[in-house]
Design brief:
Blueprint (H helix, E strand, L loop, with lengths): L2 H40 L7 H29 L1 H19 L5 H15 L2 H12 L5 H26 L5 H22 L15 H13 L7 H9 L2 H17 L1 H13 L3 H7 L2 H19 L2 H25 L6 H35 L3 H27 L4 H31 L12
Helix pairs in contact: 1-3, 1-4, 1-5, 1-6, 1-7, 1-11, 1-12, 2-3, 2-4, 2-16, 3-4, 3-5, 3-7, 5-16, 6-12, 6-13, 6-15, 10-15, 10-16, 10-17, 11-12, 13-15, 14-15, 14-17, 15-16, 16-17
Length: about 450
Protein backbone atom coordinates (compact mmCIF):
# COMPACT_ATOMS: atom_id res chain seq x y z
CA UNK A 1 0.00 0.00 0.00
CA UNK A 2 1.42 3.41 -1.01
CA UNK A 3 1.48 6.41 1.30
CA UNK A 4 -1.21 8.15 -0.78
CA UNK A 5 -3.54 5.16 -0.73
CA UNK A 6 -3.08 4.78 3.01
CA UNK A 7 -3.91 8.45 3.56
CA UNK A 8 -6.93 8.13 1.30
CA UNK A 9 -8.24 5.14 3.26
CA UNK A 10 -7.81 6.97 6.57
CA UNK A 11 -9.65 9.99 5.23
CA UNK A 12 -12.51 7.87 3.88
CA UNK A 13 -12.72 5.96 7.17
CA UNK A 14 -12.98 9.27 9.05
CA UNK A 15 -15.89 10.36 6.87
CA UNK A 16 -17.74 7.05 7.19
CA UNK A 17 -17.26 6.79 10.96
CA UNK A 18 -18.44 10.38 11.43
CA UNK A 19 -21.58 9.75 9.38
CA UNK A 20 -22.27 6.48 11.18
CA UNK A 21 -21.93 8.11 14.60
CA UNK A 22 -24.08 11.09 13.64
CA UNK A 23 -26.82 9.01 12.08
CA UNK A 24 -26.72 6.76 15.11
CA UNK A 25 -27.61 9.79 17.23
CA UNK A 26 -30.55 10.59 14.97
CA UNK A 27 -31.75 7.01 15.29
CA UNK A 28 -31.31 7.22 19.07
CA UNK A 29 -33.61 10.24 19.28
CA UNK A 30 -36.26 8.49 17.21
CA UNK A 31 -35.99 5.00 18.71
CA UNK A 32 -36.47 6.13 22.31
CA UNK A 33 -40.17 6.77 21.70
CA UNK A 34 -40.82 3.18 20.66
CA UNK A 35 -38.87 1.79 23.61
CA UNK A 36 -40.68 4.06 26.08
CA UNK A 37 -44.10 3.34 24.54
CA UNK A 38 -45.28 0.52 26.85
CA UNK A 39 -44.23 2.49 29.96
CA UNK A 40 -46.00 5.59 28.68
CA UNK A 41 -49.21 3.60 28.19
CA UNK A 42 -49.02 2.49 31.83
CA UNK A 43 -48.38 6.01 33.18
CA UNK A 44 -51.58 7.10 35.02
CA UNK A 45 -50.68 10.76 34.48
CA UNK A 46 -50.96 10.35 30.69
CA UNK A 47 -54.17 9.91 28.70
CA UNK A 48 -52.63 7.39 26.30
CA UNK A 49 -53.90 4.24 24.62
CA UNK A 50 -52.57 2.31 21.63
CA UNK A 51 -54.55 4.43 19.17
CA UNK A 52 -53.20 7.68 20.65
CA UNK A 53 -49.67 6.30 20.67
CA UNK A 54 -50.13 5.43 17.00
CA UNK A 55 -51.18 9.04 16.44
CA UNK A 56 -47.93 10.22 18.08
CA UNK A 57 -46.03 8.00 15.66
CA UNK A 58 -48.16 9.32 12.80
CA UNK A 59 -47.32 12.92 13.61
CA UNK A 60 -43.67 11.96 13.79
CA UNK A 61 -43.92 10.39 10.36
CA UNK A 62 -45.62 13.57 9.13
CA UNK A 63 -42.51 15.39 10.32
CA UNK A 64 -40.44 12.93 8.34
CA UNK A 65 -42.54 13.58 5.25
CA UNK A 66 -42.27 17.36 5.64
CA UNK A 67 -38.54 17.10 6.19
CA UNK A 68 -38.01 14.98 3.12
CA UNK A 69 -39.63 17.69 0.99
CA UNK A 70 -37.37 20.43 2.40
CA UNK A 71 -34.18 19.00 3.86
CA UNK A 72 -33.01 17.50 0.58
CA UNK A 73 -33.01 20.95 -1.02
CA UNK A 74 -31.20 22.40 2.00
CA UNK A 75 -28.56 19.67 1.85
CA UNK A 76 -27.97 20.31 -1.86
CA UNK A 77 -27.73 24.08 -1.35
CA UNK A 78 -25.93 24.41 2.01
CA UNK A 79 -23.81 21.28 1.96
CA UNK A 80 -24.35 17.88 3.50
CA UNK A 81 -22.21 18.27 6.63
CA UNK A 82 -23.78 21.55 7.78
CA UNK A 83 -27.32 20.22 7.47
CA UNK A 84 -26.30 16.90 9.02
CA UNK A 85 -24.84 18.43 12.19
CA UNK A 86 -27.69 20.94 12.55
CA UNK A 87 -30.25 18.14 12.32
CA UNK A 88 -28.61 16.23 15.19
CA UNK A 89 -28.68 19.34 17.38
CA UNK A 90 -32.38 19.97 16.67
CA UNK A 91 -33.31 16.32 17.29
CA UNK A 92 -31.45 16.34 20.62
CA UNK A 93 -33.19 19.48 21.88
CA UNK A 94 -36.62 18.21 20.80
CA UNK A 95 -36.01 14.85 22.47
CA UNK A 96 -35.16 16.56 25.77
CA UNK A 97 -38.33 18.66 25.59
CA UNK A 98 -40.43 15.56 24.84
CA UNK A 99 -39.36 14.08 28.17
CA UNK A 100 -40.88 17.02 30.06
CA UNK A 101 -44.34 16.83 28.46
CA UNK A 102 -47.68 15.32 29.52
CA UNK A 103 -50.15 16.67 26.95
CA UNK A 104 -51.01 14.55 23.91
CA UNK A 105 -51.07 17.64 21.69
CA UNK A 106 -47.59 18.59 22.88
CA UNK A 107 -46.40 15.03 22.22
CA UNK A 108 -47.70 15.31 18.65
CA UNK A 109 -45.95 18.64 18.02
CA UNK A 110 -42.57 17.84 19.57
CA UNK A 111 -42.29 14.38 18.05
CA UNK A 112 -43.14 15.97 14.69
CA UNK A 113 -40.15 18.27 15.21
CA UNK A 114 -37.88 15.44 16.37
CA UNK A 115 -38.48 13.28 13.34
CA UNK A 116 -38.41 16.33 11.04
CA UNK A 117 -34.82 16.82 12.18
CA UNK A 118 -34.02 13.13 11.81
CA UNK A 119 -35.26 13.19 8.21
CA UNK A 120 -32.31 15.36 7.16
CA UNK A 121 -29.88 12.53 7.81
CA UNK A 122 -30.25 10.49 4.63
CA UNK A 123 -30.26 13.32 2.02
CA UNK A 124 -27.36 15.12 3.72
CA UNK A 125 -25.32 11.91 3.81
CA UNK A 126 -26.14 11.28 0.15
CA UNK A 127 -24.47 14.61 -0.63
CA UNK A 128 -21.45 13.82 1.53
CA UNK A 129 -21.02 10.44 -0.16
CA UNK A 130 -21.51 11.88 -3.66
CA UNK A 131 -18.61 14.30 -3.30
CA UNK A 132 -16.37 12.00 -1.27
CA UNK A 133 -16.47 8.52 -2.80
CA UNK A 134 -16.22 6.98 -6.24
CA UNK A 135 -19.25 5.15 -7.63
CA UNK A 136 -17.70 1.72 -7.05
CA UNK A 137 -17.72 2.33 -3.30
CA UNK A 138 -21.26 3.69 -2.94
CA UNK A 139 -22.94 0.38 -2.12
CA UNK A 140 -20.28 -0.47 0.46
CA UNK A 141 -20.47 2.95 2.12
CA UNK A 142 -24.26 2.84 2.27
CA UNK A 143 -23.97 -0.62 3.76
CA UNK A 144 -21.79 0.72 6.58
CA UNK A 145 -24.15 3.62 7.22
CA UNK A 146 -27.23 1.44 7.20
CA UNK A 147 -25.37 -0.88 9.56
CA UNK A 148 -24.66 2.01 11.92
CA UNK A 149 -28.35 2.83 12.08
CA UNK A 150 -29.15 -0.77 12.93
CA UNK A 151 -26.30 -1.01 15.47
CA UNK A 152 -27.57 2.11 17.19
CA UNK A 153 -31.10 0.73 17.11
CA UNK A 154 -30.04 -2.57 18.71
CA UNK A 155 -27.83 -0.91 21.33
CA UNK A 156 -30.41 1.78 22.03
CA UNK A 157 -33.21 -0.73 22.42
CA UNK A 158 -31.25 -2.92 24.82
CA UNK A 159 -29.68 -0.06 26.76
CA UNK A 160 -32.84 2.01 27.15
CA UNK A 161 -34.91 -1.06 27.98
CA UNK A 162 -32.40 -1.91 30.71
CA UNK A 163 -32.48 1.65 32.03
CA UNK A 164 -36.26 1.38 32.12
CA UNK A 165 -35.78 -1.07 34.99
CA UNK A 166 -34.25 1.66 37.16
CA UNK A 167 -35.68 4.94 35.85
CA UNK A 168 -38.90 6.40 34.49
CA UNK A 169 -39.70 6.74 30.80
CA UNK A 170 -38.89 10.45 31.06
CA UNK A 171 -35.33 9.64 32.10
CA UNK A 172 -34.85 7.75 28.84
CA UNK A 173 -35.52 10.92 26.83
CA UNK A 174 -33.13 12.99 28.95
CA UNK A 175 -30.44 10.34 28.54
CA UNK A 176 -30.84 10.15 24.75
CA UNK A 177 -30.82 13.94 24.37
CA UNK A 178 -27.64 14.28 26.45
CA UNK A 179 -25.72 11.73 24.38
CA UNK A 180 -26.80 13.37 21.11
CA UNK A 181 -25.79 16.85 22.31
CA UNK A 182 -22.32 15.58 23.26
CA UNK A 183 -21.99 14.21 19.73
CA UNK A 184 -22.95 17.60 18.26
CA UNK A 185 -20.07 19.24 20.13
CA UNK A 186 -17.37 16.89 18.83
CA UNK A 187 -18.63 15.78 15.40
CA UNK A 188 -17.82 18.95 13.36
CA UNK A 189 -14.11 18.49 14.03
CA UNK A 190 -14.06 15.15 12.24
CA UNK A 191 -16.79 15.42 9.62
CA UNK A 192 -15.80 17.08 6.37
CA UNK A 193 -18.30 17.63 3.57
CA UNK A 194 -15.80 16.81 0.84
CA UNK A 195 -12.13 16.58 0.05
CA UNK A 196 -12.16 20.35 -0.63
CA UNK A 197 -13.04 21.09 3.01
CA UNK A 198 -10.20 19.10 4.50
CA UNK A 199 -6.92 20.73 5.35
CA UNK A 200 -5.60 17.38 6.54
CA UNK A 201 -2.74 15.77 4.67
CA UNK A 202 -4.82 12.62 4.46
CA UNK A 203 -7.05 14.01 1.70
CA UNK A 204 -7.82 11.62 -1.16
CA UNK A 205 -5.40 11.00 -3.96
CA UNK A 206 -5.51 13.13 -7.10
CA UNK A 207 -6.73 10.13 -9.07
CA UNK A 208 -9.75 9.72 -6.79
CA UNK A 209 -10.52 13.45 -6.93
CA UNK A 210 -10.37 13.48 -10.72
CA UNK A 211 -12.68 10.46 -10.92
CA UNK A 212 -15.23 12.12 -8.64
CA UNK A 213 -15.14 15.40 -10.56
CA UNK A 214 -15.38 13.69 -13.95
CA UNK A 215 -18.39 11.62 -12.90
CA UNK A 216 -20.13 14.68 -11.47
CA UNK A 217 -19.57 16.87 -14.54
CA UNK A 218 -20.61 14.12 -16.96
CA UNK A 219 -23.94 13.54 -15.23
CA UNK A 220 -26.89 14.69 -17.41
CA UNK A 221 -28.33 16.76 -14.54
CA UNK A 222 -25.08 18.49 -13.58
CA UNK A 223 -26.08 21.92 -14.96
CA UNK A 224 -29.83 21.54 -14.43
CA UNK A 225 -31.72 23.68 -11.89
CA UNK A 226 -33.49 22.08 -8.93
CA UNK A 227 -37.05 22.66 -10.29
CA UNK A 228 -36.03 21.21 -13.65
CA UNK A 229 -34.46 18.20 -11.95
CA UNK A 230 -37.63 17.57 -9.93
CA UNK A 231 -39.71 17.76 -13.10
CA UNK A 232 -37.32 15.29 -14.74
CA UNK A 233 -37.65 12.88 -11.81
CA UNK A 234 -41.44 12.84 -11.65
CA UNK A 235 -41.70 12.18 -15.40
CA UNK A 236 -39.58 9.05 -15.10
CA UNK A 237 -41.23 5.68 -14.47
CA UNK A 238 -38.18 4.41 -12.59
CA UNK A 239 -38.70 7.15 -9.99
CA UNK A 240 -42.27 6.05 -9.38
CA UNK A 241 -41.38 2.37 -9.22
CA UNK A 242 -38.69 2.85 -6.58
CA UNK A 243 -40.87 5.34 -4.69
CA UNK A 244 -43.84 2.97 -4.47
CA UNK A 245 -41.56 0.08 -3.55
CA UNK A 246 -39.84 2.02 -0.78
CA UNK A 247 -43.21 3.34 0.44
CA UNK A 248 -44.43 -0.24 0.90
CA UNK A 249 -41.23 -1.17 2.70
CA UNK A 250 -41.49 1.91 4.93
CA UNK A 251 -44.88 0.66 6.12
CA UNK A 252 -43.26 -2.67 7.00
CA UNK A 253 -40.52 -0.87 8.93
CA UNK A 254 -43.11 0.98 11.00
CA UNK A 255 -43.83 -2.36 12.65
CA UNK A 256 -40.63 -1.81 14.63
CA UNK A 257 -42.04 1.01 16.75
CA UNK A 258 -45.16 -1.04 17.52
CA UNK A 259 -43.24 -4.20 18.49
CA UNK A 260 -42.69 -3.36 22.21
CA UNK A 261 -46.41 -2.68 22.68
CA UNK A 262 -47.34 -5.71 20.56
CA UNK A 263 -45.19 -8.01 22.72
CA UNK A 264 -46.27 -6.35 25.95
CA UNK A 265 -49.98 -6.75 25.23
CA UNK A 266 -49.81 -10.14 23.52
CA UNK A 267 -47.62 -11.87 26.11
CA UNK A 268 -48.28 -9.67 29.15
CA UNK A 269 -44.60 -8.64 29.41
CA UNK A 270 -43.28 -5.74 31.47
CA UNK A 271 -42.24 -2.67 29.41
CA UNK A 272 -38.53 -3.32 30.02
CA UNK A 273 -38.68 -7.00 28.98
CA UNK A 274 -40.86 -6.19 25.96
CA UNK A 275 -38.33 -3.55 24.90
CA UNK A 276 -35.43 -5.98 25.18
CA UNK A 277 -37.29 -8.64 23.20
CA UNK A 278 -38.11 -6.10 20.49
CA UNK A 279 -34.37 -5.76 19.80
CA UNK A 280 -34.75 -8.88 17.64
CA UNK A 281 -36.01 -6.72 14.76
CA UNK A 282 -33.10 -4.24 14.58
CA UNK A 283 -30.67 -7.09 15.21
CA UNK A 284 -31.97 -8.86 12.11
CA UNK A 285 -31.70 -5.59 10.19
CA UNK A 286 -28.14 -5.12 11.44
CA UNK A 287 -26.92 -8.48 10.21
CA UNK A 288 -28.66 -8.03 6.86
CA UNK A 289 -27.47 -4.54 5.99
CA UNK A 290 -23.91 -5.17 7.15
CA UNK A 291 -23.54 -7.82 4.48
CA UNK A 292 -25.97 -6.17 2.08
CA UNK A 293 -23.66 -3.37 0.96
CA UNK A 294 -20.88 -5.81 0.06
CA UNK A 295 -23.30 -8.20 -1.62
CA UNK A 296 -24.85 -5.37 -3.65
CA UNK A 297 -21.42 -4.37 -4.98
CA UNK A 298 -20.67 -7.94 -6.07
CA UNK A 299 -24.03 -9.22 -7.34
CA UNK A 300 -25.00 -8.75 -10.95
CA UNK A 301 -28.23 -6.85 -11.59
CA UNK A 302 -29.85 -10.09 -12.70
CA UNK A 303 -28.89 -11.98 -9.54
CA UNK A 304 -30.03 -9.06 -7.41
CA UNK A 305 -33.58 -9.54 -8.69
CA UNK A 306 -33.67 -13.08 -7.32
CA UNK A 307 -31.90 -12.28 -4.03
CA UNK A 308 -34.12 -9.33 -3.08
CA UNK A 309 -37.26 -11.04 -4.34
CA UNK A 310 -36.52 -14.21 -2.38
CA UNK A 311 -35.84 -12.28 0.83
CA UNK A 312 -39.12 -10.40 0.55
CA UNK A 313 -40.97 -13.68 0.04
CA UNK A 314 -39.36 -14.90 3.27
CA UNK A 315 -40.69 -11.74 4.94
CA UNK A 316 -44.22 -12.61 3.79
CA UNK A 317 -43.96 -16.04 5.40
CA UNK A 318 -42.68 -14.48 8.63
CA UNK A 319 -45.78 -12.30 8.85
CA UNK A 320 -48.00 -15.26 8.03
CA UNK A 321 -46.28 -17.13 10.85
CA UNK A 322 -46.95 -14.32 13.32
CA UNK A 323 -50.57 -14.24 12.19
CA UNK A 324 -50.88 -18.00 12.73
CA UNK A 325 -49.29 -17.86 16.20
CA UNK A 326 -51.95 -15.37 17.23
CA UNK A 327 -54.64 -18.02 16.75
CA UNK A 328 -52.72 -21.18 17.74
CA UNK A 329 -52.95 -22.75 21.19
CA UNK A 330 -49.29 -23.24 22.09
CA UNK A 331 -47.17 -23.09 25.21
CA UNK A 332 -46.81 -19.39 26.03
CA UNK A 333 -43.02 -19.48 26.43
CA UNK A 334 -42.54 -21.48 23.23
CA UNK A 335 -44.84 -19.11 21.35
CA UNK A 336 -42.85 -16.11 22.61
CA UNK A 337 -39.59 -17.66 21.41
CA UNK A 338 -41.09 -18.38 17.98
CA UNK A 339 -42.47 -14.85 17.79
CA UNK A 340 -39.09 -13.28 18.57
CA UNK A 341 -37.40 -15.55 16.01
CA UNK A 342 -39.90 -14.59 13.30
CA UNK A 343 -39.48 -10.89 14.11
CA UNK A 344 -35.70 -11.31 13.79
CA UNK A 345 -35.98 -13.03 10.40
CA UNK A 346 -38.52 -10.46 9.22
CA UNK A 347 -36.13 -7.60 10.00
CA UNK A 348 -33.33 -9.48 8.25
CA UNK A 349 -35.45 -10.09 5.16
CA UNK A 350 -36.71 -6.56 4.46
CA UNK A 351 -33.66 -4.44 5.30
CA UNK A 352 -31.48 -4.87 2.16
CA UNK A 353 -34.43 -4.13 -0.13
CA UNK A 354 -35.22 -0.98 1.85
CA UNK A 355 -31.75 0.52 2.22
CA UNK A 356 -29.36 -0.43 -0.56
CA UNK A 357 -31.12 -0.22 -3.99
CA UNK A 358 -32.79 3.14 -3.32
CA UNK A 359 -29.65 4.75 -1.89
CA UNK A 360 -27.38 3.73 -4.75
CA UNK A 361 -30.06 4.51 -7.35
CA UNK A 362 -30.51 8.02 -5.94
CA UNK A 363 -26.85 8.91 -6.34
CA UNK A 364 -26.63 7.45 -9.86
CA UNK A 365 -29.92 8.90 -11.06
CA UNK A 366 -29.91 12.22 -9.19
CA UNK A 367 -26.30 13.31 -9.54
CA UNK A 368 -25.74 16.60 -7.72
CA UNK A 369 -29.51 16.68 -7.06
CA UNK A 370 -29.38 13.36 -5.20
CA UNK A 371 -30.40 15.05 -1.94
CA UNK A 372 -33.61 16.29 -3.54
CA UNK A 373 -34.23 12.87 -5.09
CA UNK A 374 -33.73 11.06 -1.77
CA UNK A 375 -36.08 13.58 -0.17
CA UNK A 376 -38.81 13.01 -2.76
CA UNK A 377 -38.60 9.22 -2.53
CA UNK A 378 -38.60 9.29 1.25
CA UNK A 379 -41.48 11.78 1.34
CA UNK A 380 -43.68 9.39 -0.61
CA UNK A 381 -42.48 6.52 1.56
CA UNK A 382 -43.35 8.30 4.78
CA UNK A 383 -46.72 9.34 3.44
CA UNK A 384 -47.55 5.65 3.37
CA UNK A 385 -45.94 5.05 6.76
CA UNK A 386 -47.81 7.99 8.32
CA UNK A 387 -51.13 6.60 7.10
CA UNK A 388 -50.24 3.22 8.57
CA UNK A 389 -49.31 4.74 11.95
CA UNK A 390 -52.77 6.26 12.38
CA UNK A 391 -54.66 3.30 10.90
CA UNK A 392 -52.49 0.62 12.47
CA UNK A 393 -52.70 2.16 15.94
CA UNK A 394 -56.48 2.40 15.73
CA UNK A 395 -56.78 -1.18 14.45
CA UNK A 396 -54.47 -2.60 17.14
CA UNK A 397 -56.43 -0.78 19.85
CA UNK A 398 -59.50 -2.97 19.22
CA UNK A 399 -60.11 -6.37 20.81
CA UNK A 400 -58.12 -8.87 18.77
CA UNK A 401 -56.81 -5.97 16.72
CA UNK A 402 -53.26 -7.24 16.41
CA UNK A 403 -54.42 -9.98 14.04
CA UNK A 404 -55.93 -7.38 11.70
CA UNK A 405 -52.78 -5.28 12.16
CA UNK A 406 -50.66 -8.18 10.91
CA UNK A 407 -53.04 -8.77 8.00
CA UNK A 408 -52.39 -5.21 6.81
CA UNK A 409 -48.65 -5.88 6.94
CA UNK A 410 -49.03 -9.12 4.97
CA UNK A 411 -50.86 -7.40 2.11
CA UNK A 412 -48.31 -4.57 2.12
CA UNK A 413 -45.40 -7.03 2.01
CA UNK A 414 -46.88 -8.76 -1.04
CA UNK A 415 -47.18 -5.38 -2.78
CA UNK A 416 -43.58 -4.49 -1.86
CA UNK A 417 -42.31 -7.79 -3.26
CA UNK A 418 -44.03 -7.28 -6.61
CA UNK A 419 -42.93 -3.66 -7.03
CA UNK A 420 -39.30 -4.10 -5.95
CA UNK A 421 -38.90 -7.14 -8.18
CA UNK A 422 -40.31 -5.15 -11.10
CA UNK A 423 -38.01 -2.19 -10.36
CA UNK A 424 -34.89 -4.35 -10.23
CA UNK A 425 -35.97 -6.08 -13.44
CA UNK A 426 -36.28 -2.71 -15.18
CA UNK A 427 -32.81 -1.74 -13.93
CA UNK A 428 -31.41 -5.00 -15.25
CA UNK A 429 -33.00 -4.56 -18.67
CA UNK A 430 -31.67 -1.00 -18.91
CA UNK A 431 -28.16 -2.17 -18.04
CA UNK A 432 -28.09 -4.63 -20.94
CA UNK A 433 -26.39 -3.11 -23.99
CA UNK A 434 -28.35 -2.84 -27.20
CA UNK A 435 -26.72 -4.31 -30.31
CA UNK A 436 -23.79 -2.08 -31.17
CA UNK A 437 -24.26 0.27 -28.20
CA UNK A 438 -22.88 0.48 -24.64
CA UNK A 439 -24.87 -0.34 -21.52
CA UNK A 440 -27.21 2.31 -20.22
CA UNK A 441 -25.71 3.87 -17.11
CA UNK A 442 -27.15 7.33 -17.40
CA UNK A 443 -30.56 8.42 -16.16
Amino acid sequence: MTEHSGQNLRWEAQIVISMCLGYGMLMLCRTVVGVAGPAMLLDPDLALDTATFGAILGWGTAGNLTGKLTNGVLADKLGGSKVFISSIALAAVATFIFGTLSSNTAFFAIYFLTVFAKSAGWPSMANIIRVSFTHAKHGRVWGFIATSSRVSSVVTTLLLSSLLLVMSWRGLFFFAASIALICVVFLPKYLKDSWKDSGDSSSPSQKTVEALLARSKNHPLHDVSTPAAIFYFVKNSRFWLISLGVASLAVLFEFQVFIPIYLSETFDLTPAIAGMASAAFPLGCLIAVFSGGFVFDKLSRKNLIFVVGAMLIVAIFCLLGLRFLGTAELNAQFELILTIALIFIFGFAISPAYYIPMSVFSIDFGGRHCGVLVGLIDALAYLGAMTFDFVGGAVANKDGGWQDFLSILIVTCVIATVIMTLFLTVEYVRSKPSPGSPALDSP
